[in-house]
UniProtKB/TrEMBL annotation:
This is Phage head morphogenesis domain-containing protein. The lineage of its organism: Bacteria, Pseudomonadati, Pseudomonadota, Alphaproteobacteria, Hyphomicrobiales. InterPro entries: Phage_head_morphogenesis_dom (IPR006528). Residues 57-102 form the Phage head morphogenesis domain. It comes from Rhodobium orientis. It comes from the Bacteria.
Length: 315
């Protein structure tokens, strides 16, 4: 009696398991029929993917990546297909001896790449054109940080307005080229900041990008850092435009008055020295000295995009 009950339970468990497996497989599909024929003729086990419930409507085709992969299947590698719309090759595992697999694909994700900037605060009130010119004549070539001129935030805003979309697309391309790995690159160009800060004008800005990505179900989860550097030089006061400064007053303040002062000093010294019979050198003229304008700031990025660029809004 005991053995009969045990056998009955075992039989019941087998029936439940069998019915469950049957419910989880599409025995009428072409792929299942071909696999079953291969099992009958050659003893090839049915692929697990043919026995399990498909968790998604689409999948990413994956090959083994070796020399045994058929060219037609290698061409499918990384592409996305729908279970109800197979490619000309059929689904992975349908051809005899095919070792390709179908990775579940998460459709309709909210693609995004977000860039957050830091350290872009200004350190003082915005400089006027007169301040830039004054430093040219009196700063002795001392370098100036953009934030110290009070213009960093406005320049960064103008820069990001021009390059943000391009920067995100470049990050997306880097991620796809380095799936599952780290990546790095830099982008450098000259930008016209004339209407933002006339005194700075054409400015070279470089962005160094470094990050990593993880691939999952046909998507890439990405994150990383960006280091920005701005380089410019104030060379000639006339570069800032005559219409934005009082040229006459600038000349008087920075050239005429210093020259008059030096002339008076030299004349008095020459008269004094000649009375002592000492020969003097020639009169000097006060001129300005170019100075570097630089700054640095940083950023972070993170997001999630499709690994397949053909269905992505990035790249």
């Amino acid at each position: 009696m005991h053995e009969h009950l045990a056998g009955g339970r075992a039989l019941a468990r087998w029936r439940i398991s069998s019915e469950t497996r049957k419910a989880h497989m599409d025995t009428g599909s072409i792929s299942y029929r071909r696999a079953f024929e291969a099992y009958i003729r050659k003893g090839i086990p049915l692929a697990l993917t043919l026995k399990e419930t498909r968790p998604t409507t689409h999948y990413v085709w994956r090959t083994r990546g070796d020399g045994k992969v058929r060219p037609s299947h290698a061409a499918n590698d990384g592409k996305i297909f729908a279970w109800d719309d197979p490619p000309p090759t059929g689904h992975p595992g349908e051809d005899y001896g095919c070792r390709c697999t179908a990775e579940p694909f998460l459709a309709n994700i909210d693609e995004r790449i977000e860039i957050t900037l830091s350290d872009i605060s200004d350190a003082g009130s915005p400089w006027s054109s007169r301040d830039f010119v004054g430093h040219y004549f009196n700063g002795k070539g001392r370098a100036v940080k953009v934030r110290d001129t009070g213009h960093l935030h406005s320049i960064v805003s103008a820069y990001m307005k021009e390059v943000e979309v391009k920067l995100k697309n470049n990050i997306a391309r880097l991620s796809r080229q380095n799936r599952g790995n780290s990546f790095s690159d830099y982008y450098e160009n000259t930008y016209d900041m004339t209407w933002t800060t006339f005194s700075i004008g054409d400015t070279k800005i470089r962005a160094d990008v470094s990050g990593s990505c993880a691939e999952r179900h046909g998507t890439l989860e990405i994150s990383g850092d960006i280091d920005f550097r701005l380089e410019d030089e104030f060379v000639d006061p006339l570069d800032i435009g005559l219409e934005v400064i009082d040229l006459e007053e600038t000349i008087i303040e920075n050239i005429q008055r210093p020259i008059e002062s030096r002339i008076r000093e030299r004349i008095n010294r020459i008269i004094s020295d000649r009375l002592r019979g000492i020969k003097q050198d020639r009169l000097g003229i006060h001129t300005g000295e170019p100075y570097p304008i630089t700054d640095e700031w940083s950023g972070q990025f993170e997001g999630r995009i499709y690994a397949d660029s053909s269905i992505s809004k990035f790249g």
